[in-house]
Specification:
The complex is a heterotrimer of chains A (330), B (249) and C (289). Chain A has one domain. Chain A contains 15 helices and no strands. Chain A has helices spanning 2-6, 15-36, 41-63, 72-88, 93-115, 120-140, 142-145, 170-191, 194-204, 206-211, 216-242, 252-265, 270-290, 292-309, 313-329. The two termini of chain B are 35 Å apart. Chain B has 9 helices and 10 strands. Chain B has helices at residues 43-51, 73-79, 96-107, 118-132, 150-163, 180-191, 206-212, 230-235, 237-244; strands at 3-14, 17-28, 32-36, 58-63, 66-67, 81-83, 168-172, 199-202, 215-220, 223-228. Chain B has a single domain, classed as P-loop containing nucleotide triphosphate hydrolases (Rossmann fold), CATH 3.40.50. By secondary structure, chain B is α/β, with parallel strands linked by helices. In chain B, β1 and β2 (17-28) form a beta hairpin. Chain C has 289 residues and is an all-alpha fold. Helix content of chain C is 71%, strand content 2%. A two-stranded antiparallel ribbon of chain C has the order 1-2. Classes of the chains: A mainly alpha (330), B alpha/beta (249), C mainly alpha (289). Chains A and C meet through α6, α12 and α14 of A and α4, α10 and α12 of C.
Chain lengths: 330, 249, 289
């Protein structure tokens, strides 16, 4: 709805460009990166997976205004579920993704009943506490989860029974890139729907939404579960491509990193996730090899600067620059 | 005249403080009722009680004979009890048409449609434009609400209420905060509202009350002090003293 | 019985430290509505300042403590004026991100200054070793911390309840709109409150260094712990924070003694249950939730 409503001229002339243009750009950039840095496919695959994870935060936090710091609970649930499914039931990869999505959505729905009635600091702390309890359970239930050691040697069958995952990670890269593009497309459609607009309305003013008859908590529960499914898919992809799952997949650091990456990219737009994750990962890769504390200094300053001077993040900057260029041209 | 809304013995207490005391009131089709009273008389509280934002301590609310007490605010809105806010509550980061569309989406039960459809979007869009057109806001449909003048925001507030297809409309000071030069537009809008729609209007601007209302209810300290035509209210010495103070304002 | 007494003494001491560190955070949250994730950095700053004053300048414990607390309070003023004040009224998410950024910067700077290893604060003989309380003996440090914590609580209670500053503070928390209009200088009020909160955090950090050891990662490591006390207590309430510190401090200590395997989970479960039952905090007002 948003793109039609906000700017009717955008749909008609370049209809296909509006429909799948951003996805094509993601494919192009991803393939280019893979061709230029063929030795870093593992790193790029990690960026793909974290992009999906951060997209789930962009949906939940950026669109619906649910200020959570516990999104890793949903990622971890997806990765453990997919790993256990592969170890005990079937190593077919697509079914693993489905199981991961269901686990993420299920955990989101269960925790959402508790946390979505609150706001502000209480919501943040409840989401953290829930994720930590889940982490402790995974830690103690070693007979299922492997505890501190995690789960290793997770089997993955060839995709569609034909394309086997290779040692170089080429298939893993293509597989995660494809998943990223599909998720991105679906989420872009979702936020352009009446459902998505209602999410932004709830973020804007809950009281107003109640007064127009919106069942606010039910709506938030629904979007949180969808976000959980997306985070679960990211977790499942992580389990399948690295073939290990550990407690870090449920950890607070992952939740915080996701939010930081999103805010650097731009909270209010899905594209913010896709800009923020590679930026964050590359800057960390470069600075952390010098000294891990330099990295903290860089990211700390980056966060302060973003909040104070770039409220729209990188996306806001690019958008402003593009509009200025557009005005100059016409 | 069919009775739409009936309040019987409606009472609300906060701790020891009674903010609504045994209020009996009914609204019929086509009613134009104004609710006046000094600040703190409990006018907005009454709207909060009817719309479901507050739960009454005692008493009942009926719409078309059905008891509303157990229903929450959202359910009552879906049944047609629609209110506006004294201070505009709009999504400032969304455009004018998006704010109105939000209400249309609720009315059409489309809020859980997860995929956009060009046909449905066009229908909602044209319906929203049709609501904005008579307010002179159609050409500002794409603007962010936060960038609009306050008077225009008040109009959007009413447009949203109308988008919900109300059976009973509760207007909480629709002209509050609007400069006098623009309040004429709001009065004009009020006079063009559907004739059979029952309306309860809270208003401080006596000129607006007298031009709009056919019945005036005076609320003092949470209780109904007087009920009558505008002329009767204007002549009542007790009300003049309590409400208008030294000879009106 | 011995076990019970140990849990009580250790738990109380831990609670007092949590209270001293977090009370400033709670009050600034209630007053300025800023979620300050970097508050733990003030406790760390105080702790490291005390370590440095004692080891490099050879100061005794008490003067080092006083100077470190005052220095931390002083340093917090420009931080509040230059950075934190710019995010008043911004969405909580922005506040959380900016202050997490500040915490990262603090960690990195402390690391550049002193390295990543732990530092301990050498307590003078008067405060170490056991003390006999009649029925049995306890670590002197724990008893001293409890006495200090109680004294600070009473002092704060009197200060906020009786002083002109406290009256203005409460007025501004209760009616943020009105405070400015009746002539309360909110800028000064905010700076002073922030500085007092930072100073108390430094005091708690130094006093608690035996339980929460000083290291560069301190602000992030204990961030959730400190925020939990504030959320469970209810933002802006002195007694709520005190009760929450007691609850979480004693629960955490008890479970470390009794169920060491489940210590972490019982801490988070306590917080989860407390917030689920009272989203606005133990003594918080409903509209704050």
């Amino acid at each position: 709805m948003a793109d039609i409503v906000a700017d009717p001229s955008r749909v008609e002339p370049g209809r296909w460009r509006a429909l799948i243009g951003p996805e094509l750009a993601v494919v192009a950039v991803g393939l280019l990166a893979a061709i230029v840095f063929p030795d870093d496919l593992g790193f790029i695959t990690r960026i793909n997976i974290l992009s999906i994870f951060t997209l789930s935060i962009a949906l939940v936090v950026g669109q619906a205004g649910i200020g959570t710091l516990g999104q890793a609970a949903l990622f971890g649930a997806g990765s453990y579920a997919a790993a256990l499914w592969a170890l005990h039931v079937s190593a077919e990869p697509f079914s693993g993704l489905l199981v991961g999505a269901l686990a993420g959505a299920g955990v989101a729905a269960a925790s959402g009943l508790l946390i979505l009635r609150t706001r502000g600091l209480t919501l943040i702390m409840l989401s953290i506490a829930f994720a930590q309890v889940l982490l402790e359970i995974a830690n103690k239930a070693a007979f299922v989860t492997g505890g501190d050691d995690g789960l290793a040697d997770i089997p993955v069958n060839p995709i569609l029974g034909a394309v086997a995952f290779d040692f170089h990670g080429r298939v893993g890269f293509c597989y995660t890139l494809a998943a990223l593009v599909v998720v991105y497309f679906c989420l872009r459609r979702l936020i352009a729907s009446p459902f998505g607009l209602t999410c932004r309305g709830i973020k804007g003013d809950r009281l107003r939404m109640r007064a127009i008859g919106a069942p606010v908590v039910r709506h938030l529960l629904c979007v949180y579960a969808i976000g959980g499914a997306v985070a679960g898919i990211a977790g499942a992809l992580s389990a399948q491509t690295t073939q290990v799952v550990g407690l870090g997949n449920l950890g607070f650091e992952l939740s915080a990193e996701g939010l930081v990456m999103l805010s650097i990219g731009g909270v209010g737009h899905l594209a913010g996730a896709l800009l923020g994750v590679p930026t964050f990962m590359i800057v960390r890769h470069v600075t952390a090899t010098i000294n891990p504390y330099h990295w903290l200094l860089v990211i700390g300053v980056l966060l302060v600067v973003t909040v104070l001077f770039l409220p729209g993040g990188l996306y806001g900057m690019v958008d402003k620059w593009r509009r200025r260029a557009g005005q100059g041209g016409s | 005249m069919t009775e739409r809304l009936r309040l019987s013995g409606l009472t609300k207490t906060f701790g020891g403080l009674t903010v609504a005391s045994h209020i009996d009131l009914s609204l019929n089709d086509g009613d134009r009722t104004a609710l006046i009273g000094p600040n703190g008389a409990g006018k907005t509280t009454l709207i909060n009680l009817i719309s479901g934002a507050l739960a009454p301590s005692a008493g009942d609310i009926h719409l078309d004979g059905a008891r509303l007490n157990p229903l929450d605010q959202a359910s009552r809105t879906r049944l047609g009890i629609v209110r506006t806010f004294q201070v505009s509550r709009l999504c400032r980061d969304l455009s004018v048409i998006e704010n109105v569309s939000l209400a249309l989406i609720q009315r059409h039960r489309a809020a859980f449609r997860l995929w956009p459809s060009a046909r449905r979007d066009r229908a909602i869009r044209s319906e929203a434009i049709a609501l904005l057109e008579p307010l002179g806001l159609a050409d500002k449909a794409g603007r962010l609400v936060g960038a609009l003048a306050y008077g225009e925001q008040r109009l959007i507030e009413i447009a949203i209420a109308l988008a919900l297809n109300p059976r009973v409309l509760l207007l909480d000071e629709p002209a509050a905060g609007v400069p006098e030069s623009e309040s004429g537009v709001i009065l004009d809008l009020l006079s063009r509202l559907p004739g059979d729609l029952p309306i309860l209007l809270i208003e401080h601007d006596m000129e607006l009350v007298f031009r709009f209302a056919r019945r005036v209810i005076v609320l003092v300290a949470g209780a109904i002090l007087f009920e009558g035509t505008p002329a009767e209210v204007a002549e009542n010495q007790q009300i003049r003293e309590i409400y208008f103070g030294r000879g009106g304002h | 019985m011995t076990l019970f007494a140990s849990i009580l003494i250790d738990g109380m001491a831990y609670a007092m430290i949590l209270f001293m560190i977090t009370v400033g955070l709670s009050i600034t949250l209630g007053l300025m509505h800023v979620v300050n994730m970097a508050h733990g950095a003030f406790a760390m700053l105080g702790g490291f300042a005390a370590v440095e004053l004692m080891s490099r300048l050879g100061l005794r414990f008490e003067p080092a403590l006083v100077i470190a607390v005052l220095a931390t309070a002083l340093v917090s003023v420009p931080i509040e004026r230059v950075v934190i004040s710019r995010i008043y009224g911004r969405p909580e998410l922005d506040q959380a991100l900016l202050t997490i950024g500040l915490a990262f910067v603090a960690i990195a700077l402390v690391n550049l200054w002193l390295g990543a290893s732990f530092s301990s604060i050498d307590l003078p003989a008067r405060l170490s070793g056991p003390v006999d309380l009649g029925f049995r003996s306890f670590p002197r440090h724990r008893v001293a911390v409890i006495v200090l914590g109680c004294a600070i609580s009473v002092a704060l209670w009197l200060f906020i309840g009786r002083s002109r500053f406290g009256i203005r503070l409460r007025a501004a928390v209760d009616n943020p709109g009105i405070a400015e209009s009746v002539g309360i200088n909110t800028t000064l009020l905010y700076s002073m409150t922030f500085a007092i909160g930072a100073g108390l955090a430094a005091l708690g950090g130094i006093a608690g260094a035996e339980l929460l050891p000083m290291e560069a990662n301190y602000p992030i490591k204990y961030m959730v712990l400190f925020l939990a006390v504030v959320a469970v207590g209810g933002q802006g309430t002195l007694f709520g924070t005190f009760l929450a510190a007691l609850l979480l401090g004693v629960v955490d200590t008890a479970s470390k003694y009794l169920l060491p395997d489940l210590a972490s989970i019982s801490f988070y479960l306590t917080m989860l249950v407390a917030l689920a039952l009272r989203p606005q905090g133990l003594l918080g007002r409903k509209d704050a939730a």
